[in-house]
Design goal:
Strand 1 and strand 2 form a beta hairpin. This protein folds into two domains: about 70 residues, no CATH class; about 180 residues, no CATH class. The protein is α+β, with helices and mostly antiparallel strands. About 35% of the residues lie in helices and about 15% in strands.
Amino acid sequence: MTPIRQGNATGRPADSPASGAVANSAAQLLDLYAPGQLFSWPELQSMAADGVLTRLYQHGYTVPGAPASPQLRARAAAFAVPAAIRQRVVAGRMTAAWIYGCASEPDLLALLVDAKRRISSLRSTRGCTLHEVRLGPFDVVSLGGLMVSSPSRTALDIALHVEPDRAVPALRQLLESPDLDVRIRLLTLAVEATPRLPHKKAALEKLALAAPAVARGPVDVEHSVDPPDSAQDVAQILGITHLEGKLGDGHAVG
């Protein structure tokens, strides 16, 4: 794979990139490195061992001290997704939470596949878990060349599908990040309004634990939706059309 952006790099890589000024100078020209034309993976690992670079995710490396934005994390995660399927999957759940800076680095990428697509052809993908779901038009955003579930969809999926000890801290950070605009009341309404939603009670409990203190009082998860309100109405408010039907089951791939 080649680096995502080569900037103004024109020199050849040093014979020993883990040492010397040439490697350090080259590292300043890029904000993200991956094995490719400039450096091999062993060379990147060597530079990381010497402190010239730092690993961001798997094969993605950056300059020490460089701010890790959601775009940069998404680009690093994209290196771990085979190019042939990169436009067919969506980074979701705890992987998306990590991309947004609200969770620790995932051991495996959690990838969502729209139920309208054929998932059978993706089952040989290694190093990730695949989850067949319904995705609406507002469920997905594009970051750094990778499709990622929106912050609200990410929070909802985590509440529904991730165990509490990992879900609650991630949900709390998603809710407390003003740039992400994840709203506890809309999430609660979306879960409560949808009939026959699997894991509804557990999801509401996780949301209640993660809710900012100021929001805990007014939110009544027992009677949060008036009878005339439908699941479709709430889903449209939240922009998550998949709530109109049952979520698909996850398919884990080793």
